[in-house]
Amino acid sequence: MKNLLVTGYRAHELGIYNNKHLGIPYIRQAITNRLLPLLEDGLEWIITPGQYGVDLWAIEAAIALRENYPQLKCSIITAFCNQEEKWNEEKQSYYRELLGQVDYYAAVSKEPYAGSWQFIARDELLFRKTDGILLVYDEDAGEASPKYFKQRAQKKQASENYEYFSIGSEEIQFLADEDHSSYEEFLE
Q: Around Cβ 107, how many Cβ atoms within 10 Å?
């Protein structure tokens, strides 16, 4: 696998409204843990839709991994231009900082938001350009936007050689519990 789509929940779907939330490092760590064996097997590109949430935390994880895997490239491909213009200033600044560190950025539509067709065109491109997906989604926690990526990925997996990997809430909770346990041992 050379190109991996990484996506999942939008931050607000997880009740996260800024980058100070204590759960973000565990989500990033879970993504990192899944990327490591893929990097050892030749992964070259991480591609995300660039939404505020898992997409950008995956970019952060990939940027951090470049220290040991300098061949790793990162890309953000959005549905339309200036997707961040309605975000608050903190989120816009964070997004622009990440854009400055990716290897490739493009908007499928050069127009501002005009309709759902832009998301459909983006998703079609993302699935066409990738060999697999890493999806942060837990269906048991209730339906959310990643369900559409899951359905499309599973359909592509059934008809083509498309790989599907997922990270659920149990995996993230395990990392948080493990960290908390280590902290308690440190205090003893």
A: 18
